[in-house]
Amino acid sequence: KKFDIRCYSVISCTKPFVVLFNDGYCRISLNDFNLEDFNTKEGKITHMTNNSVQKKHPEYKARKEETIIDMTTLKEYLIENSKISSAEEFDLKVTAKIKEIMRIMFLQVKDKLDKTFGCFELLGWDFLLDEDLNPQLIEININPALFTDTSTQKKIIPKLIDDTVDITLKLHARNHSSAKQEDVDQVVSDLQGKYGLELLYQEGKDS
Hints:
Elements: E1 3-14, E2 17-28, H1 41-47, H2 51-54, H3 60-63, E3 68-70, H4 71-80, H5 87-109, E4 121-129, E5 135-141, H6 151-171, H7 181-190, E6 198-202
Antiparallel strand pairs: 1-2, 1-4, 2-3, 2-6, 4-5
């Protein structure tokens, strides 16, 4: 079946830049993969894993849990099917490369962004994996869907939103024009366990 990975970055602050990462989840088509229906109406469901497209499948209500799995489940599936030997191998081959691509893309555009203190941005990133598990960037969404139609989405998305808002409020103290260094340090420290986000880029630090 066609599948891809939806992960997230959060530009939590622009003064200084603090950019975070969430590994998201895996999106799966309900149709078996084939190339014969590529240009048909049915083929849109086969080849586009977006939740809004999969909802048009006649069996979506009964099978919607099949369309979204968490990253742990994806890793377990790949191990069971001898594509990787461990979760650590997946993190090295896939997750680390995804984060590197996201970091490089951000660095290419950061000097063109409006550095407005008090603002943040949540971005949805979509990646395909080739047969060697190399991630290929499909697109970046500035208004990612935040549906919670499945149990996996209910587990991931509300926490992602809560963490994003909590971190943003901590970094944007009232009556300041930039984030206080002690607030940045505290947020980065809390990423180790309190939040479901990782540091992707921190201005002034080696990256």
